[in-house]
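Hi support team,

I've been running sequence recovery on a batch of backbones for a student project. Most finish fine, but this one hangs at about 90% for roughly twenty minutes before it completes. I'm not sure whether the input is malformed or the queue is just slow. I've pasted the structure tokens below so you can try to reproduce it. Let me know if you need the job ID as well.

Thanks,
M.K.
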């Protein structure tokens, strides 16, 4: 874990070294000042020597200025190092998340990743700054003050030593009891963030079903869990302050009593007693800072583990040693493929899939919910790896290709259509960053998206809100199809991607595909028979297996599943707007 975190300090090593050096210089100056004060009392005031007072006073001012400058520099460089460290942690996590396969992503909740990138990193940032400054300053100050105290009076300094051991033991007991609580707090933060994310992303559904009160109660429950655990931890930590005050006042009383007796016996000067009282405060305040460091480090340990878990997560998909950077054509072959999302699962999601699809063919996929249609097509672009068997694209196992090359040649329009904040052109250019406006318009014509875009006030420069909130479901689907077409793929997969458009528009899209991209292999997952009735072949899926793979005509005669769906959907003469069908 320390190696993982240390690697993210990178260009901030210099301020990370300067900060503790500044803190040590500050402490040295602070330790010198009480000696100068004692010298003023004993050698100046006691003897009436004004020149000595002026000399020591000037030295005290100089030491104070040096201490102030060192403290300021330590604060500046400490803030620079800690904020830079936090930035690198976020960058490292986010960059690694981008490399995750779907299998890796499935291990983490979205809310959990957000908590790691925000709350957990902030905890590490605060802890790192405290380590650079207080973790050096406090122990160094304690050691120096203790050494100076023993130098002045070993007898009186023994009081400090006893207090340090008693207070240190009590603080360790307090910190140990809070460690488990702080570890569980961040798990509750995940639940809190999940509640917010789920509510905001589905706010329309919440309002449609008048479930605001339910959502408020759910959020309050998650918030109460965080509150309850923090209160539990803070109640224990609250013992820190009274314990510290009792120790400080006890030490002052003991030192004052012993010191007064020694002054009367002329074995100690008044200036020495003043210095000892100052060192007493330094020692005990250093102990308080050490306790705060332990608390902060304890809190950050749980965060550090969660951050390192993400940074060290290795993608389950990797490039081969000598990847192929060219996909020759859009032919696909499933060679006795088995697939499980979790290798420990007893039953596979896909069982013994054996298919051959020619380049340029249009293939429909039909099946009930849970028949593994999406799982089947996800394997083609290697979003997951097969558990057994192999998948070949262009005559080569997909595991032999460079992953980016393969995915650039396999465009997938997923079930959940996602648009990003920006103009329509910005969203379309996700398919091809260098696409001209005319190329974007052509893709939109193929996807029948030009019809509604041209009616918008700003046309292709219309701003799309986050998630495509200002366009309808059908418009969003067509924009996503146009975006996929801009990649000029050899394989185009539409995963139920025309479900929100009417059948007339669906037919126009299919007609444009047949005419404009005849060399592209088209795989269409659909619940609507009219979407796949004109495909070259249709795959009928049931319970993760291929029930049939044939032309629509043959399937109507020979396959029970296909025939039942066809008859149910066509019994009333088809969809109301089928006049647009090719």
């Amino acid at each position: 874990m320390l190696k993982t975190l240390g690697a993210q300090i990178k260009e901030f090593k210099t301020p990370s070294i300067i900060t503790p050096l500044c803190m040590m210089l500050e402490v040295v100056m602070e330790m010198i000042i009480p000696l100068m004060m004692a010298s003023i009392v004993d050698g100046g005031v006691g003897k009436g020597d004004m020149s000595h007072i002026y000399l020591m006073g000037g030295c005290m001012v100089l030491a104070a200025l040096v201490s102030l400058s060192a403290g300021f520099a330590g604060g500046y460089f400490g803030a620079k190092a800690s904020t830079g460290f936090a930035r690198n942690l976020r960058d490292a996590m986010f960059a690694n998340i981008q490399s995750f396969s779907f299998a890796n992503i499935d291990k983490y909740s979205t809310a959990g990743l957000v908590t790691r990138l925000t709350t957990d990193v902030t905890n590490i940032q605060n802890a790192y700054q405290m380590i650079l400054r207080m973790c050096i300053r406090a122990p160094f100050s304690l050691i120096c003050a203790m050494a100076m105290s023993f130098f002045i009076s070993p007898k009186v300094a023994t009081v400090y030593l006893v207090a340090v051991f008693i207070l240190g033991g009590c603080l360790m007991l307090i910190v140990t009891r809070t460690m488990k609580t702080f570890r569980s707090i961040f798990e509750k933060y995940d639940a809190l963030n999940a509640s917010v994310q789920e509510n905001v992303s589905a706010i329309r559904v919440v309002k449609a079903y008048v479930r605001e009160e339910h959502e408020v109660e759910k959020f309050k429950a998650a918030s109460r869990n965080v509150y309850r655990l923090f209160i539990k931890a803070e109640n224990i930590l609250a013992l820190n302050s009274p314990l510290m005050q009792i120790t400080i006042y006890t030490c002052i009383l003991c030192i004052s009593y012993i010191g007064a007796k020694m002054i009367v016996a002329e074995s100690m000067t008044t200036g020495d007693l003043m210095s000892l009282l100052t060192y007493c405060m330094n020692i005990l305040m250093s102990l308080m800072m050490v306790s705060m460091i332990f608390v902060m480090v304890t809190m950050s340990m749980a965060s550090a583990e969660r951050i390192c878990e993400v940074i060290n997560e290795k993608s389950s998909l990797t490039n081969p040693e000598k990847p192929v950077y060219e996909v020759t054509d859009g032919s696909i072959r499933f060679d006795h493929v088995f697939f499980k999302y979790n290798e420990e699962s007893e039953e596979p999601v896909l069982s013994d899939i054996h298919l051959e699809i020619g380049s340029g063919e249009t293939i429909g996929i039909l099946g009930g919910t849970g028949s593994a249609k999406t799982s089947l097509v996800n394997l083609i672009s290697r979003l997951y790896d097969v558990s057994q068997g192999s998948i070949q694209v262009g005559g080569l196992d997909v595991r032999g290709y460079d992953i980016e090359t393969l995915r650039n040649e396999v465009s997938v329009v997923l079930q959940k259509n996602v648009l990003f904040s920006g103009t329509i052109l910005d969203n379309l250019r996700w398919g091809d960053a260098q696409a001209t406006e005319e190329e974007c318009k052509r893709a939109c014509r193929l996807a029948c998206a030009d019809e509604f875009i041209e009616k918008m006030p700003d046309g292709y420069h219309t701003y799309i809100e986050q998630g495509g909130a200002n366009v309808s479901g059908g418009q969003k689907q067509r924009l996503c199809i146009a975006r996929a077409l801009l990649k000029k793929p050899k394989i185009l997969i539409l995963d139920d991607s025309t479900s929100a458009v009417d059948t007339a528009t669906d037919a126009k899209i299919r007609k444009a595909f047949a005419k404009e991209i005849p060399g592209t292999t088209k795989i269409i997952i659909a619940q609507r028979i009219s979407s796949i009735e004109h495909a070259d072949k249709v795959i009928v899926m049931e319970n993760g297996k291929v029930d049939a793979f044939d032309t629509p005509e043959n399937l109507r005669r020979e396959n029970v599943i296909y025939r039942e769906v066809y008859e149910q959907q066509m019994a009333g003469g088809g969809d109301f707007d089928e006049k647009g069908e090719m």
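--
Follow-up from support: It reproduced on our side and the slowdown came from queue contention, not your input. Confidence is low (pLDDT under 50) at residues 575-582. No action needed from you.
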